[in-house]
Amino acid sequence: MYDVCVAGSGVAGATLAREAAKKGLKVLLVDRLPANRVGDKVCGDALGSHHVERLGLSLPRESYFAVYPGIEIYSPDMKSRLSIVAEGLSAYALNRVEFGQFLLKLALDSGCEFRSETHATGLIIQDGFVKGIKLLNLKDGSKEEVYAKVTVDATGSSRILSKDLKTLGFDQELDDDETLVCYREILETEEAPPLPTIYLDMEDAPGGYFWVFPEGENRVNTGLGVVKNAANPRLLFEKWVEKLPCLKGKIRRVIHRGGGVVPARRPIDSAVWNGFIAVGDAAFMVNPVHGGGIGSSMTGGFLAAEVIAEALENGREDEATLWGFNAQYMSKYGAKQAALDVFRIFLQSLNNALINYGLAQGLIKSEDLLKASMGEKLRLNITEKASRFFAGIGKPWFLARLNKTAQLMEDFRQLYINYPSVEGFREWRSRVRVFHERLHEEIGRA
Question: How many domains does the chain divide into?
Fold first, then answer.
């Protein structure tokens, strides 16, 4: 019998396993990958330094390629840009495999047991509690049932274990507009941009964006995400390669290519049940605007370990005892994520012409966007000139909708800050659903 069994050794699962083992719990961590491939995941590989500092980690030099002071965002016509740079903030361009190996080693050094090439196939549910996990050994095909006081789903967007639960809170599926389908290539190039760069374009990256993140002088992580069923991301990728000066004719070789799915939306309504917690992508712990989830998932894993340790110390692992994880995550990150989900819905409703002019007129300044991404209220810079322009092109509603979006972001954030007790969950969840439907009606229209 284990205290904690964690399925998935990504950043959320490895962080939770490490912290739980450090607290003296008996922890089993399993992953379907071979041990030397833990960390091998298709993503943008960027991590804000504030996440690392918050968790008290010191990254070894081999776990990242470079550190950058910020990021740039370009309009579809590439005539306007936002430089998101602030003193004290920086971004790591991670060596994703080495970073994953670093987190795994920390977990093992803390006393965690690890089984590689082991697939979690389902939950053991008895008497209204999750009691453990069903495992398949991918090397010899053998099956096993492992019992644990608390079982953790850290299996990513596949949500293998969470889908076994039909209880309230885990009955959520991703809508198409909340699902980013991504294609990425790691390229050796003749040059790279000085800063990580995001390109907005509702035609060539519908509902998402194209990115070019440098990993040193002659290597870039580049790719794009688009909303599900909008377009083939690989074909759009090839189109971008032909139009960006930093890529066209300057690619020496492709180092790696691959794809994936990102859940870009507000967090799951509840990530806990009797004997069970979900973290990382399995609990939708991803920034809805830029799709980054490494830092937030590590935060989720850290908080979950604290709640689990306290619950087991009190001899209980029921939903009410684990409920504190929901409240802690919402206050630390989820409320901000909910606000940014409002902005995502608004952004996905725009066309290129509106984005071009909005950025050209500075309706949202770099420092205000940075503050909003860190959890503050979005502030706007709406001028008389901008008002006349939108009236002149027959779209006076645009500025009103932008103002409305800023207010709805704050309202939704407050709803998550005031996360309920177990007893108030059903009523709160009903309010969230009504609010979300309202968002699509009021700001999700073209």
Answer: 3
Global pTM value: 0.95
Residue appearing with tokens 């990530």: 271
State how far the alpha carbon of 353 is from the alpha carbons of 78, 203, 226, 401, in Å.
12, 11, 19, 16
Q: Which of 37, 159, 48, 158 is nearest to 100 (CA)?
A: 37
CATH assignment of the domain containing 258: 3.30.9.10
The predicted-structure confidence for 200-243, as pLDDT tens digits, reads as follows: 999 999 999 999 999 988 999 999 999 999 999 999 999 999 99
167 and 141 share one domain: yes
The edge-to-edge listing of strands for the beta sheet with 251-263 is 81-85, 70-74, 197-199, 209-214, 219-227, 179-189, 251-263
Q: What is the pLDDT of residue 167?
A: 85
- Of the chain, the end-to-end C-alpha distance in Å amounts to 55
Last residue of a domain, one of 334, 363, 388: 334
DSSP classification of residue 158: G
275 and 357 co-located in one domain = no
Residue 152 pairs in a beta bridge with 6, 277
Instruction: Give the DSSP per-residue string, 268-295.
Output: PS--EETTEEE-GGGGT-S-TTT---HH
Q: Give pLDDT, residue 446.
A: 59
Domain that holds residue 240: 177-263
User: Rounded to whole angstroms, what are the CA distances from 303 to 17, 56, 97, 105, 240?
Assistant: 11, 14, 24, 20, 39
Beta bridge partners of 182: 225, 260
Q: Is the pLDDT of residue 428 over 90?
A: yes
Residue 231 CA, distance from chain mean position: 22
Same domain assignment for residues 304 and 328: yes
Burial class (CB within 10 angstroms; exposed 0-12, middle 13-18, buried 19+) of 184: buried
pLDDT band (50, 70, 90) for residue 28: very high
User: Do 27 and 146 belong to one domain?
Assistant: yes
